[in-house]
């Protein structure tokens, strides 16, 4: 956790019996062998494929891809999601519907693939001068003086308080809006590690200039 | 850098991030299904999973996946 987050609280009521029975049936079938397991895996893959297609359909405008290419991405996402789920069945804790738990794997896989594909032919816009240009890019005559001074103080804190790596990550993620999965892939790191860098940089800035006004 | 239509307030919010304690991306993924089902059932999801809302405010990628999961379940129900 970043900061002191209280522990997850238990659900206020008992889990719906139907939900637990559904989950137990999925788990039993997926842990079985032979035809029963194959059938369950095929049914789960169909659900995952639907979730992956749903995610990709939302991003169709960002992806210069044919219908076939998009469907190929969806199938790859569902395949990888199914593998992840089968390896993590013991992690399911009966705190959500089993299908909700499963869908998130397919959505993660599809979203990550879509972000990377959308940026596959683009250079990372790493530009050290972006901070210098930020005031003229964003300062609108309608913005009040207090906001202008706040932004200038943030930019100065970026220059004086952050490490070069923190400046690079903050600039790419926030100024250039590079998706975190894309930046992680290009820098050879993980989404979690990059978010930690971003979080630490933001905390330093807030300590100097205060929180958002 | 790409040009953006974001307002100065939005850029400042992105630079400073959420002020309160927040989950990590890994914790967010681990608990996303519980959070979304809690929201859909009318429970106080933010009381059940402290730090999730702050993370979704600060992490656009996790926020997108939360939105997709929520909308998918709405579409299927």
Give a nutshell description of this structure.
Chain A is mostly helical and 213 residues long. In chain A, 69% of the residues lie in helices and 0% in strands. The mean pLDDT of chain B is 92.
Question: Can you characterise this structure?
Answer:
The complex is a heterodimer of chains A (213) and B (77). Chain A has nine helices and no strands. Chain A has 213 residues and is mostly helical. Chain A folds into two domains: 102 residues, Orthogonal Bundle (Rna Polymerase Sigma Factor, Chain: A), CATH 1.10.1740; 80 residues, Orthogonal Bundle (Arc Repressor Mutant, subunit A), CATH 1.10.10.10. In chain A, helix 6 crosses helix 9. Chain A is elongated and about 65 Å long. The two termini of chain A are 25 Å apart. The model of chain A has no long low-confidence stretch (mean pLDDT 89). Chain B has 77 residues and is mainly α. Chain B is globular. Helices cover 70% and strands 0% of the residues of chain B. The longest helix of chain B is centred in the middle third of the chain and has 17 residues. The model of chain B has no long low-confidence stretch (mean pLDDT 92). In chain B, helix 2 runs parallel beside helix 5 and helix 4 packs across helix 5. Chain B has one domain. Chain B starts with 7 loop residues before the first helix and ends with a helix. Classes of the chains: A mainly alpha (213), B mainly alpha (77). Chains A and B meet through helix 2, helix 4, helix 5, helix 6 and helix 7 of A and helix 1, helix 2 and helix 5 of B.
Low-confidence stretches of chain A: none
Counted up, domains of chain A total 2
Oligomer state equals heterodimer
Low-confidence stretches of chain B: none
Q: How much of the residues of chain B is beta strand, in percent?
A: under 5%
Structural class of chain A: mainly alpha
String of helices and strands of chain A: HHHHHHHHH
Return the CATH architecture of the largest domain in chain A.
Answer: Orthogonal Bundle
Principal-axis shape of chain B equals globular
The average pLDDT score of chain A comes to: 89
Counting H and I runs of at least 4 residues, what is the number of helices of chain B?
A: 5
How large is the share of residues in beta strands of chain A? under 5%
Instruction: Give the termini separation of chain B.
Output: 41 Å
Q: What is the terminal-to-terminal distance of chain A?
A: 25 Å
Number of strands of chain A: 0
Proportion in helices of chain A: 55-70%
Taking the sheet with the most strands of chain B, its summary is: none
């Amino acid at each position: 956790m970043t900061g002191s987050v209280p522990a997850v609280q238990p659900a206020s009521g008992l889990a719906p019996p139907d939900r637990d029975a559904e989950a137990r049936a999925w788990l039993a079938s997926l842990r079985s062998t032979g035809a029963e397991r194959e059938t369950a895996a095929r049914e789960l893959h169909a659900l995952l494929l639907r979730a992956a297609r749903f995610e990709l359909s939302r991003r169709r405008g960002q992806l210069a891809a044919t219908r076939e290419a998009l469907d190929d991405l969806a199938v790859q996402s569902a395949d990888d999601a199914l593998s992840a789920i089968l390896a993590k069945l013991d992690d399911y804790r009966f705190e959500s519907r089993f299908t909700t738990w499963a869908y998130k794997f397919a959505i993660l896989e599809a979203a990550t693939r879509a972000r990377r594909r959308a940026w596959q032919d683009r250079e990372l816009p790493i530009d050290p001068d972006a901070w210098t240009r930020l005031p003229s890019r964003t300062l609108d005559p309608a913005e009040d003086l207090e906001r202008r001074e706040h932004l200038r103080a943030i930019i100065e804190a970026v220059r004086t308080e952050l490490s070069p790596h923190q400046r690079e990550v903050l600039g790419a993620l926030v100024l250039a809006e590079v998706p975190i999965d894309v930046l992680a892939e290009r820098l050879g790191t993980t989404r979690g590690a990059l978010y930690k860098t971003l979080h630490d940089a933001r905390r330093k800035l807030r300590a100097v200039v205060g929180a958002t006004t | 850098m790409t040009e953006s239509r974001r307002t100065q307030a939005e850029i400042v919010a992105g630079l400073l991030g959420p002020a309160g304690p927040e989950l990590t991306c890994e914790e967010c993924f681990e608990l996303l299904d519980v959070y979304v089902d809690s929201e859909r059932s009318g429970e106080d999801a933010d009381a059940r999973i402290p730090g999730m809302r702050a993370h979704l405010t600060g992490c656009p990628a996790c926020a997108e996946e939360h939105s997709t999961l929520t909308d998918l379940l709405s579409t299927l129900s």
